[in-house]
Amino acid sequence: MAELESLETAAEHERILREIESTDTACIGPTLRSVYDGEEHGRFMEKLEARIRNHDREIEKMCNFHYQGFVDSITELLKVRGEAQKLKNQVTDTNRKLQNEGKELIIAMEELKQCRLQQRNISATVDKLTLCLPVLEMYSKLREQMKSKRHYPALKTLEHLEHTYLPQVSHYRFCKIMVDNIPKLREEIKEVSMSDLKDFLESIRKHSDKIGETAMKQAQQQRNLDNIVSQHPRISGGKKSKKEVCASSDLEVKNTSPMSEQDSGILDVEDEDEDEEVPGAQDLVDFSPVYRCLHIYSVLGARETFENYYRKQRRKQARLVLQPPSNMHETLDGYRKYFNQIVGFFVVEDHILHTTQGLVNRAYIDELWEMALSKTIAALRTHSSYCSDPSLVLDLKNLIVLFADTLQGYGFPVNQLFDMLLEIQDQYSETLLKKWSGVFRNILDSDNYSPIPVANEEVYKKIVGQFPFQDAELEKQPFPKKFPFSEFVPKVYNQIKEFIYACLKFSEDLHLSSTEVDDMIRKSTNLLLTRTLSNCLQNVIKRKNVGLTELVQIIINTTHLEKSCKFLEEFITNITNVLPETVHTTKLYGTTTFKDARHAAEEEIYTNLNQKIDQFLQLADYDWMAMEPGSKASDYLVDLIGFLRSTFAVFTHLPGDVDVHSTMSGKVAQTACMSACKHLSTSLMQLLLEAEVRQLTLGALQQFNLDVEECER
């Protein structure tokens, strides 16, 4: 058993030795480990030493066998060393010569290398600059545009710079600086454009007056052109517009009324430069700041902010424009400036509406116009109520019409303005009535209440031309002769016609129908007759110092004025072209006015006669205790009867419908005589029945009887 184990161990040691001989030294570790892991380490070392000695003997044998060859090889090597030394020397010499010869080439090569490097760097630099230069150029262009205040192009340049050029060179430091500056530049553009907009808003606020004045001049020129076209329908051809028809009818009315030169034309400012070309209202304003700012805010995504700001500021300006000055009613220029500012404001807004997309819309414009219309009408109602001069009211009406026509030309509804003009027409009528009240008072106060003497045919025709009077008997009489009425008759008649003309002036350009104009004139004329003229006549009749002769002449005058009413009717019909037979035509009440005045004059005559009788009776001094009567009637009664005789002689001049000296004079004279006799008899009876008369003598009664008999005769 022990032998078997030693044989196995020897075989294992042999295997390990073979592995050590044949295995790479890097892999010998595991083999040696197996030796140290076993228990036969000493025997293996003995085996290994025996193997080493065996190999040494083999090496020695081999060396002894090859020794001569080794010596020969050494000898050959020594020879080769000498040759190699020679070769080395040659190579060294050749190298030295080559080095000497190649120094210039090396220098040239270094220079070439450096040039190639520089060329490559230059090429890279050019490529980089090619990318950077457009960026720098765009940035320079941006700065130049900002400097020259071309903000919208600057914003476009900024957009190109940010999205097209900077991404290509974003790794450069200067590009990062530019990128950081872009929000600042945008904000700067935004602020500068907003500043320009504020300047624009301030400018148009200051120049609204001029813009409106220009727009109203254009409207006046257009109206004048329409009038010219309406005068020459053959030239215009085709159908007329509503506005042309109105202008034509207004022109016909104007041609029938003898206006004075100062009343023709609407406003002085329109008449001055009528033939000159008026520039467009929009030509006076540079709207580019609005467009630029709108585009800039749109590009920046802040359009809504801009729209809200613009509308808010314009609303504020509208409220300022619509605030009338406190003294506006004093002069026409105050109203003109007020209207010019309003027109200027809405001309600008209308232009903005049609030249921008959505900055303002129709609803916004309509809202502003509704506010402006209500405030304007309220201001006009307030301030026009202070006007007491009809000429100023008429000029104001013409100015309002021009104001309305101007804004209507821009598409704004103006019906409320024309409705308000009808209200002002009532006020105009009142101012006319006040003015004509003064005119009538002056005429009546300055009249001499005597028939108008006529010395020749020329004067006669002049008066007949002023007042419609025809009398065949008077025409047959030789000169000099007298009209039955005094001077206030033709003067009052002509002033009534002037009043009608004044009413007609107000109705022009109000787009009223002929019937409406006729109705308006007739109502105003009726007020003139029944209120103004009637009051003036009544005041004259009721004056304390008016004489019977004057009252008689007033009766004569009112009779002739009453007859002239039909001519006033014809006059109104001629200027309005509305026949009096029309269903809704208002009738003139002049006949009633003059009848009432005549009756008042007659009553005043009766009252004055009775007062005169009372004055004479105050002179009566009866001696109720006289024993004997006098031989004649009392002196006071003789004087009274003489006064009554001379007074009734005046009534022979009263006119009548059939016979001037009989019917009318007889009626008034009879009534006056009856009134005087009745009053005299009543007064005489009162003398007898006075409480102071307690005793009467027969002589006193006989004297009283003489006086009564004198009255009977």
TrEMBL record:
InterPro entries from the UniProt entry: EXOC6/Sec15, EXOC6/Sec15_C, EXOC6/Sec15_C_dom1, EXOC6_Sec15_N, EXOC6PINT-1/Sec15/Tip20_C_dom2
Example of a GO biological process term: vesicle tethering involved in exocytosis
A Pfam family the protein falls into: EXOC6_Sec15_N
Protein name: EXC6B protein
Domain Exocyst complex subunit EXOC6/Sec15 C-terminal: from-to ranges: 416-712
GO cellular component: exocyst; plasma membrane
Keyword Coiled coil included in the entry's annotation: yes
All copies of domain Exocyst complex component EXOC6/Sec15 N-terminal, residue ranges: 47-216
Keywords: Coiled coil, Exocytosis, Transport
Entry similarity comment: Belongs to the SEC15 family.
Highest taxon in the source lineage: Eukaryota
Chain segments annotated as coiled-coil in the UniProt record: 45-115
Gene of this entry: Exoc6b
